[in-house]
Amino acid sequence: MSSRLPAFAADIRAVFAERDVNMTEIDVLQPADPFLDMAGEDLRRRIFLTESETGAALCLRPEFTIPVCLDHIASQAGTPRRYAYLGEVFRQRRDGGAEFFQAGIEDLGETDIAAADARSVADAHALLTRVLPDVTLTATLGDQRLFEAVLAALGLPRGWRTRLARAFGSAAQLATALDDLSNPSRSASYAEPVASLIFDGDARGLAAHVRALMEDAGLSVSAGRAPDEIAQRVIEKAELRSVRLSSDALDALRAYLSIRTELEGASEALADFERQAGLSLGAALELFSARADAVLGHGLPRGCVKFDAGFGRPLDYYTGLVFEISAEGSRPLVGGGRFDRLLTLLGAQQPIPGVGFSVWLDRIEALRGDAA
Amino acid sequence: MTITLALPSKGRLKEESLAVLTKAGMKVMPQTDERSYRTRVDGLDVEIAFLSASEIARELGNGTVDLGVTGEDLVRETIPDWEKRAAIGARLGFGRADVVVAVPEAWLDVDTMADLDDVAAEFRQRHGRRLRIATKYWRLTQQFFSSQHGIQVYRIVESLGATEGAPAAGSADVIVDITSTGSTLRANHLKILDDGVILQSQACMVQALKPRSTEDDATLQAVLAAINGR
Predict the structure, then answer these.
(1) Where in the sequence is the domain holding A274, given as residue range(s)?
(2) Entry's InterPro entries (chain B) (predicted)?
(3) Which residues of A, range 322-351, sit inside 8 Å of B by Cβ?
């Protein structure tokens, strides 16, 4: 694996130069904690970790979005602001080299959500078209927020909504969750006095009992899970056990998840779904339609953008649009999405909306090689 | 030609390992003096090296010993891609212990990994940090949480001893640790999740997968056959 800059890097810089973006340089060596905190502990075996002299965990940057956001927060730059990057990332992979190039644009602080989403999809598409002029591209859009709106409209209890929302994007996890919810497991049996406290719905009494247990075990009641938090979830669980997912709700969820259509017909398909399921998706659908119109307004080739209601990414910082763009039979060349929670999680004082995409230059290089 | 068999260097594990070899009809020559860490098996081209159990797993992974008696937990934890580098030749029936996920007993709402998934997902929002798991089993924990149960959002804090005390010490919320009777966990007011047994471990005779001469391979197979026929 060579670490030379791909020949078409200049074309990508040209695409950036035509847009109102700030080309940004990111340090190769990054603090490791933000990546592990955001993406989860599983990332540890896929990044290159090292340590500073003082014992701080550092890593070679495995991606750009988090460092771009961290730099933005640190510089206290005004918003909206768009950052572009092009450089190497470092990951341990079973297939392919451990060093490869990525490029992308992160759009931070733009409050016109639909317009910013659409611009991100259009910019990603324009970039690919520039470097792969003869390749037919397909963009697939998903929507985390719309799925959560369906769950809310179905009137599902909070515990179920969060469980299903979390499984969104992973067909296997979603199937397991739906299965569990339509066949709740046998009720757990509690000893007294817990059983009576649950029966009476006595959250305060239960919290006091949990507090006593914690103090008995020498556990801090403030450093981790708190007594009232535990009591609340005990009662919530007991309530969930007495209900099960109705077959109507299950059918509606399955019908929603099976919606796959060209973007041109997506708003109509969703309106049909609303009618048939007798639900209203409200603001989430309005945003979806505004975004769909805005994407189509960018003049992408007809039929090249699809909406897949079941498409998502199981990372908890994606909040709305998720998308990828592929050539026929290829792995995704671009991955992107909206991450309105990420900047707050990384320490921003005020919520800052964000949307962006990242391009896999090694995959593009392989496709260009095939075409030559 | 000679093959090397690594045995635990002290305590009950050493005694039980030697007992297994004796029962399999192999006579381990007495160490020349108490401080020597090497000896041989009488009448076989087998050299014995006494090492600590975790070193044995590492040396098997590196292929510097041919056979070794060590815990299955250590094999799976210490050797990256262990199935490609080592094979379990025999389970020896001693050193039994489970690697388990345990949470405070006061967590009345948490009985299963699915419960823990719920708690982990909301933890950051409530407490401004991820749920912390204390363990010395990084690899087993990651596999179990991430691959098997799809739980992504947690952090591992390395614990080099007295892991069961981590929740009370405030350094972690949950632990993954080894237990044989569960009494240490109970004494620390911790409970094992219903589906929280990651591995039922015991001492094993483990073979390093590496090229060796026909002669050495025959010796190695003879040792394994004797142990499996004991």
Answers:
(1) 137-183+246-327
(2) ATP_PRibTrfase_cat, ATP_PRibTrfase_CS, ATP_PRibTrfase_HisG
(3) 345
Per-residue model confidence (pLDDT) at position B168: 94
Q: Is A158 annotated as ligand-binding? A: no
Res. A316 pLDDT band, cuts 50 70 90: confident
Query: A221 CB near a chain B CB, below 8 Å?
Result: no
Please report the ipTM that was assigned to this predicted complex: 0.85
The verdict on B142 and B185 lying in the same domain is: yes
Checking if the pLDDT of A371 tops 70, the result is no
Helix H or strand E encompassing B214:
helix B214-228
Looking at the 3D structure of chain B, how many domains does it have? 2
With beta carbons under 8 A apart, name residues in chain B contacting A314. Answer: 150, 152
Please write the tens of the pLDDT for every residue from A249-267: 999 999 999 999 999 999 9
Read off the pLDDT of each residue in B118-127 and give the average, rounded to a whole number: 88
CATH number for the domain harbouring residue B17: 3.40.190.10
- Which residues are CB-neighbours of B209 under 8 A, at least 6 positions away? B63, B84, B85, B86, B87
Instruction: Residue B156: count other Cβ atoms within 10 Å of its Cβ.
Output: 21
Q: Which of residues 40-59 of A touch B (CB under 8 A)?
A: 40-42, 44-45
Domain that holds residue B143: 97-201
User: Using the beta-carbon criterion (under 8 Å), do A315 and B152 form an inter-chain contact?
Assistant: yes
Burial pattern B189-215, b for ≥16 Cβ within 10 A else e, equals: bbbbbeebebbebbbbbbbbeeebeee
Q: Is the same domain home to A287 and A163?
A: yes
Residue pairs spanning A and B at CB distance below 8 A? 100
Residue A115 belongs to some domain of the structure? yes
Residues linked to residue A85 through DSSP beta bridges, in sequence order: A104
pLDDT tens digits along A215-236: 999 999 888 999 999 999 998 8
Q: What is the CATH number of the domain that holds A311?
A: 3.30.930.10
Same domain, A27 and A75: yes
Query: A204 labelled as ligand-binding?
Result: no
Do residues A274 and A158 share a domain? Answer: yes
Whole-angstrom Cα distance, residue A109 to residue B80?
43
User: How many domains is chain A built from?
Assistant: 3
pLDDT tens-digit series, residues A275-298: 999 999 999 999 999 999 999 999
